[in-house]
Amino acid sequence: MISDRIFGLVTVIVALAYGVSATSIQTSFLADPVGPHLFPYLIAGVMVLSGLIVMLRPDPDPEWPPMRSVGALAVAVVVLVGYAYALRPMGFLIPTALAAGILSYQISPRVVPAAVTGVSLSVGLFLLFKYALGLGLFAVPRDWLG
Amino acid sequence: MDVFANLAMGFGIAFSPFTLMLAVVGCFLGTIIGALPGLGPSNGVAILIPITFTLGLDATSALVLMTSVYYGAMYGGRISSILLNIPGDEPALMTTLDGYPMAKAGRAGDALVLSGVASFVGALLATMGLMFLAPLLSRIAYQFGPAEYFALYLLAFCTLGGIASNNQAKAAIASCIGLGIAMIGLDNQSGMPRLTFGHLHLMDGVDFLVAIVGLFAVAEVFFFIESHGKDTSIGVKLEKVTIPWRDIFATRWTMLRSTVIGFIAGVLPGAGASLGSFLAYMSEKTIAGEKGGFGTGVAKGVAAPEAGNNAAAGGALVPMLTLGVPGSGTTAVLLALLMTLNITPGPTLFTDRPEVVWGLIASLLIANFVLLLMNVPLVKIFVRVLQVPPWVLLPGVTMISFVGIFSLSGSYFDLLLMVGFGVLGYVLRKLDVPTVPIILGILLGNHMEDSLRRAMVLSGGDWTYLFSSAIAIGLWIAAVAGFVAPMFLRKVLKKPQRVTD
Predict the structure, then answer these.
(1) Distance between B48 CA and the closest CA of chain A, angstroms
(2) Same-domain pairing of A33 and A78
(3) Same-domain pairing of A86 and A42
(4) What are the chain A neighbours of B187 within 8 Å (beta carbons)?
(5) Which of residues 39-58 of A touch B (CB under 8 A)?
(6) In this structure, are residues B273 and B317 in contact, taking their beta carbons and an 8 Å threshold?
(7) Is B500 a member of any domain?
(8) For a Cys-Cys bond, which of B82, B164, B272, B351 suits B99, CB 3.0-4.6 Å?
(9) pLDDT at residue B238, as a whole number
């Protein structure tokens, strides 16, 4: 109930914001009868309508995870974001081993198997990508190679 | 018949050693992807696309590889349904209903072989159906102008939202999210940037591969973290594998009927394989009546959904190839592949690039025989794959997704966007909002807007032009019916839930 009401409200707000930012789209001299505004407006309109329907006729609440799992998910997101930033400057091996290890630990909390998974996935995938598939990856930061 | 001449040309392409190897590799990977719980056909194909793309395969080879994966995943989905009572992918849900009880009764080998044969029958006949129906449909599609295409796109969103989801409003929201994202970037007609908020990374728009991998693969990882991989129950042991000739013979009509039903369900835009297996199972259950014992592990209950599911997978390729409108989540991903390869699906595909189409069809026919071989005598190999624990599998999937997207653009921005889509996908799926319409929206958004604007240019801004031909009106009616009718049918046709021990 409450989840859907919030979701519907968020949808309506996002749709309105979308519609408002669509007003600032510039038209060029190449005009057609419809122009670049109409379709975004239509989308925003349908979205507002559907959002209102969800707000007024909500489904039963889903089973949200307990706080501890939410914490674990937040950690996972942080790890993945960090991984996204680290992949280029840090090379493939170290960030991948760390990220894969942490994710593995979060699915099944045992230190040794998680560490083994992280390291072996990192090395195994590197060999696969670099030599079997020929992708241009760097194993370690470029500075280390001199 | 020129069908056979074309097919001969297709086999000429498909029988090259390299293409054959790709088909075998694709079938093998696909069966594994299908068998592993948490890695269905959509996300399996999705994470492989960027890698295929970086490998620099030509269009035909890439298409052969990925459609073999697609067919393979449809075969593989049954393995974990039968042995673990966990559907390997969504369409395999119906196979758990009779497959798992049959396996518990000590007939796991029989169930696997029977469902493998049923998959073969369904997929083979559907590929033949594709062979004859697709050229016919592409001839009709020649008469489609922008008004008809606009109505057709609308139909795809409506049926997808109406049939494949539980709540129309939520499906509409999902479609709008996708369409809205598609608008970001340069406007096709005027070349002006739209909704980029001055952000340089957004000028090119959002790459659909980033969205697909995020929504399907990364979101799945979050689900596994939430459940701590607890969803992996201990399965049934597989002893000896023999061929149950009597069961296969006894279910021959069931397989044929289910194939027809599945194929039709697959051809309908937006319906897809899940509906195919569902309708096939339900109609066989009705035909068999109370005495049929459906749900207790009968042979017909195993054969029907698998034949239906695989026939629908073949059928779903018909609208995807001829009209550029996918019939299911996985075909939406395949459409993304075509677009990445710069192939425009549609009626012109059959005349301009016959080697692509017929090479693909011939490879699918070959792939079916390869899959039968892999899934009946060699099924034990894939059963072993099921023992890969989720705490190795899911980190692996994540890392492959990251490397795939990273190798496409080499930008951290796309990776961040992918994580963002992962979070979005998790929250939306929790709220029972389907994510396939988002993908469809991102894929088709620009085409849909273009056809609307071109229609208006042609008519000089006259709105009645959208309803000016019989085909267009038919499509509009079908769209409205596809969206509204399921609201009333939902009470009658309840989605069956998973059986619990």
Answers:
(1) 12
(2) no
(3) no
(4) 25, 36
(5) 39-40, 43-44, 46-47, 49-51, 53-54, 57
(6) no
(7) no
(8) B82
(9) 67
Phi, psi (deg, nearest 5) at residue B325: -115, 115
Tell me: the pLDDT tens digits for B357-392? Answer: 888 888 889 889 989 888 888 888 888 777 778 888
Same domain, A72 and A126: yes
Q: Using a CB-CB distance cutoff of 8 angstroms, which residues of chain B are in contact with residue A31?
A: 190
Distance between CA atoms of residues B90 and B106, nearest Å = 25
Q: Are B73 and B34 in contact (CB under 8 A)?
A: yes
Contact flag B415-A51 (C-beta cutoff 8 Å): no
What is the rounded distance in angstroms from the CA atom of residue B10 to the CA atom of residue B361?
Answer: 7
* B221 in Cβ contact with B35 (< 8 Å): no
pLDDT of residue B498: 47
DSSP string, A28-74: -SS--SSTTTHHHHHHHHHHHHHHHHHHHSPPPPP-PPPHHHHHHHH
Q: Residue B194 belongs to what H/E stretch?
A: strand B193-194
Residues of B in contact with A36 (CB under 8 A): 187, 189-190, 192, 194
Note whether A71 and A139 are same-domain residues. Answer: yes
Is residue B495 one of the residues assigned to a domain?
no
Please report, as a single letter, which amino acid is at residue B135.
Answer: P
* Residue A50 sits in the same domain as residue A109: no
Nearest residue to B367 via CA among B4, B94, B9, B74: B74
Separation between Cα atoms, residue B439 and residue B429, nearest integer Å: 14
For chain A, 146 residues long, give each residue's pLDDT as a single digit of tens: 788 999 999 999 999 998 888 887 777 666 677 778 888 899 999 999 999 999 988 888 888 888 888 888 999 999 999 999 988 888 888 899 999 999 888 888 888 989 999 999 999 888 888 877 777 777 777 677 65
Quick one: closest CA in B to A102, which residue? Answer: B395
Structure tokens belonging to residue B222: 């979050």
State whether A45 and A82 are in the same domain: no
Same-domain check for residues A71 and A48:
no
CA atoms in the 13 A half-sphere facing the CB of B63? 30
Cβ contact, residue pair B400, A87, below 8 Å: no
Looking at A12, A27, A56, the residue that finishes a domain is: A56
Q: How far apart are CA A123 and CA B250, in angstroms?
A: 51
Tell me which residue of B42, B64, B93 sits closest to B331, measured CA to CA: B42
Contact list, B179 vs chain A (CB under 8 Å): 39, 43
pLDDT in tens, B258-287: 999 989 888 877 666 777 888 888 888 888
Does A140 share its domain with A73? Answer: yes
Determine whether the interchain pair B180/A47 forms a contact, defined as Cβ–Cβ distance below 8 Å.
yes
pLDDT on residue B52: 81
ipTM of the assembly?
0.91
Neighbours of B29 (CB within 10 A): 20
CA distance B249 to chain A (A): 44
Chain B residues near residue A46 by CB distance under 8 angstroms: 172, 175-176
